[in-house]
Amino acid sequence: xxxxxxxxxxxxxxxxxxxxxxxxxxxxxxxxxxxxxxxxxxxxxxxxxxxxxxxxxxxxxxxxxxxxxxxxxxxxxxxxxxxxxxxxxxxxxxxxxxxxxxxxxxxxxxxxxxxxxxxxxxxxxxxxxxxxxxxxxxxxxxxxxxxxxxxxxxxxxxxxxxxxxxxxxxxxxxxxxxxxxxxxxxxxxxxxxxxxxxxxxxxxxxxxxxxxxx
Length: 214
Prior knowledge:
Number of domains: 1
Low-confidence stretches: none
Largest sheet: 4 strands, mixed
CATH topology: Glutaredoxin
Number of helices: 9
């Protein structure tokens, strides 16, 4: 029996290219199944670890961080929207009026991994932010999403009320930064092979087939 490929998907729930990358990877996985089996773990990366609790206006944030003009930002949004549409992911970026802190979302994702439903929560978080325009730092939103994917909501509330899994998330963040990952998405296969960015499904498919054959 073929050993599953190990995939660490390093990403942030406030990163639109991470949503594109995940949809693209899943498209590729559907193409290579059942010949190629994988085990995916979502690893934490914060694009804005110092983001204040109330968040920041998206347009202002992009201007301050990247020097983007409103026209450049609009062009990038359209590119992202079109790429998502090709892969079946709906971006309503006009609803994404603010950038938020995502640390608590990563803590909940760490727990979801232990409970065996990390992928479902990751997809729910990306949809909540990019499609529905919800706040991924809001504990009520996080608890609701946890319940929707089958997690215990009372347990989710308890985790978010304290600092459970904070040390584990920070440790993983530091590990991948020390490995040289400073932008996401970063897809690491079998701890050795890196695919950076929201690549087309064909790129993931080719890499998965080649590595599975080795």
